[in-house]
Design brief:
Layout: H1 5-21, H2 25-42, E1 43-44, E2 49-50, H3 69-79, H4 82-99, H5 105-124, E3 139-141, E4 145-148, E5 154-161, E6 168-176, E7 181-183, E8 187-192, E9 198-206, E10 213-220, E11 223-233, E12 242-246, H6 252-259, E13 265-266, H7 272-275, E14 278-283, H8 287-290, H9 300-307, E15 311-315, E16 331-334, E17 338-343, E18 364-365, E19 368-372, E20 377-382, E21 387-394, E22 397-402, H10 406-410, H11 422-437
Parallel strand pairs: 4-11, 12-13, 12-14, 14-15, 15-22
Antiparallel strand pairs: 1-2, 3-5, 5-9, 6-8, 6-10, 7-9, 10-11, 16-19, 17-18, 17-20, 20-21, 21-22
Helix pairs in contact: 1-2, 1-3, 2-3, 3-4, 3-5
């Protein structure tokens, strides 16, 4: 039936309408067989959705049933099969409770074309609301390396991707620890929350040989897995005087710098010899996602840089690619969109030098920051009262994280709505660069 879920859904909707006008047994049988095919070939039970194409080896997606829901509801009524009804209810619940309305005209038109007919089946079945969505399989990861500084505790933080609105009880346990390292607690329990990238953090102390493995086993509902990190000891660096940029020319931050006539040296890699030329670095918003300068392959290099006295400014960290161990202290990120609310440290140089900035209210954050560890100083909060811009001292250096996206306004990808102005967004970028230039003064 077409080889794709949505195409099968279109055909099933057509057969449903035709059967209503001209009832036929062959149409009913075709609807049931189509639902059988969806269940056997396209249903992703772990994700409560449908693969786009008939190739589970390469397509592990779990799309919403915008085109399938009507015909699938009818097939479930005709067949009485438990798997048809379960497939319909779980995918519809996920679409409504987790996905929400589409942001495009085509997508929204598709949703309102099919969904009312699917919801009417719930009424016929005696349900007065769409059931809560079932938990989807979470993705849990650990940083490839545990960064160790002699004489200081280290943190091994897990990252979680969980899309279901229903909290999921979870646990993680260190099952293998190198000789010389001890953990405050070897087993941690928590609740997975929708959209929150941070998982539990293990605090470790002691010493271990370079490359020694640490194994963590996690459990969440019916799912489990094992993760491994290896020990990475701090490497001493001698720093230079230049200000560098990690990112691409097409990164919105790179585009904004060029628009404002600001030139920063791009880094090709993060080798010690390269970092030795710089005293401050600006990291673009897509740097981790696209692995510019090998950042995802060698994140501990930035930790070495900061510990040695470097200043590091990071723009709009994306929760999808972030690992908590890539900064000296815990930060959590969510794919929930927000906006900057209040500047809470108005006399900080970020808001005074060289430009005095009184307000940045309304500046968009594509990913928000639900929490920041106590080591961070909050400079600005978002519209939900959560941290939005934070800074901290680490070793001999300092770190600045700016979660809103002033760059988008400077390059015309977002439109400033009063009281926010494009000039204020440009002023913030200029102040961030001035903060970097002040490194070591």
């Amino acid at each position: 039936m077409g080889g794709k879920s949505f195409m099968t859904g279109v055909v099933m909707a057509g057969m449903t309408m035709l059967d209503q006008v001209e009832p036929r047994e062959d149409l009913k049988r075709s609807l049931i067989l189509s639902a059988d095919w969806l269940y056997a070939r396209m249903w992703n039970a772990e994700g409560n959705g449908f693969r786009y194409a008939q190739c589970p080896q390469y397509d592990s997606g779990a799309g919403a049933p915008v085109m399938e829901c009507w015909g699938l509801a009818r097939a479930a009524e005709l067949s009485g099969k438990t798997e048809h009804r379960e497939m319909f209810l779980r995918s519809l619940s996920k679409m409504i409770h987790e996905g929400g309305p589409s942001g495009s005209g085509k997508g929204y038109a598709t949703q309102i074309r099919m969904t009312p007919y699917a919801v009417s089946a719930l009424d016929r079945w005696g349900l007065d609301e769409v059931p809560p969505s079932a938990p989807s399989k979470p993705a849990v990861s650990a940083p490839a390396q545990l960064y160790l500084i002699p004489g200081q505790p280290a943190t091994l933080s897990l990252a979680v991707r969980y899309t279901s609105p229903t909290p999921l009880p979870a646990s993680a346990e260190i099952v293998r620890l190198p000789a010389g390292l001890t953990a405050e607690r070897r087993k941690l329990e928590w609740q997975m929350e929708r959209g929150v990238a941070a998982g539990p953090s293990f605090v470790l102390s002691g010493t271990a040989r370079e490359g020694a493995p640490i194994m963590v086993r996690w459990q969440a509902g019916e799912w489990s897995g094992e993760l491994e990190a290896t020990v990475r000891e701090r490497q001493a660096l001698e720093l230079g005087a230049a200000i560098g940029y990690i990112g691409g020319e097409d990164d919105p931050v790179g585009l904004a710098l060029r628009t404002l006539g600001i030139e920063l040296e791009p880094l090709a890699d993060l080798e010690p010899a390269t970092l030795a030329r710089y005293r401050a670095l600006l990291v673009g918003r897509e740097a981790h996602e696209k692995n510019y300068a090998g950042l995802r392959d060698n994140p501990a290099a930035l930790m070495d840089f900061v510990q040695a006295g470097g200043s590091l400014a990071m723009m709009q960290i994306q929760d999808s690619s972030w690992q908590a161990a890539w900064l000296p202290a815990p930060l959590s990120f969510s794919n929930t969109t927000g906006s900057l609310g209040e500047i809470v440290q108005p006399e900080h140089p970020l808001f005074t030098t060289p430009n005095r900035i009184g307000s940045l209210a309304g500046m968009i954050s594509y990913d928000t920051m639900p929490s920041a560890g106590e080591e961070w100083t909050v400079l600005a909060t978002d519209n939900a009262g959560q941290p939005s811009i934070v800074t901290m001292q680490a070793g001999e250096g300092r770190v600045l994280v700016v979660q809103p996206s002033p760059d988008r306004y400077v390059v015309g990808q977002e439109t400033a709505i009063a009281p926010l102005t494009t000039d204020a967004c440009a002023a913030l970028i200029e102040n961030i660069v001035a903060w970097l230039h002040a490194a070591g003064e």
